[in-house]
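We modelled the chain as a single entity of 73 amino acids. Its sequence is:
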Amino acid sequence: MLINISEHLSVQRYQSQNHTQWICYEPLANSQHQKRRPWSRVTGLMSADEMQNWLDRHYPDTPQAVRSFKKLS
């Protein structure tokens, strides 16, 4: 299940017995779907720390996304 952390970013949690990893998604560009927005994967599996660092580097203008992710992880 995708969890929205901003209008243009979502994450998905993958849990195993030993750890939790995350993948980040963005809306698919040029999509004509109105009812359900398709999402495109933009990262591979990352730890929570790696995801926070990735969000800080790639979305410095979206601090609310980083804060939302920190609350989840």
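As a brief sanity check on the tokenised model: The two ends are 15 Å apart (CA to CA). The longest helix spans residues 48-58.
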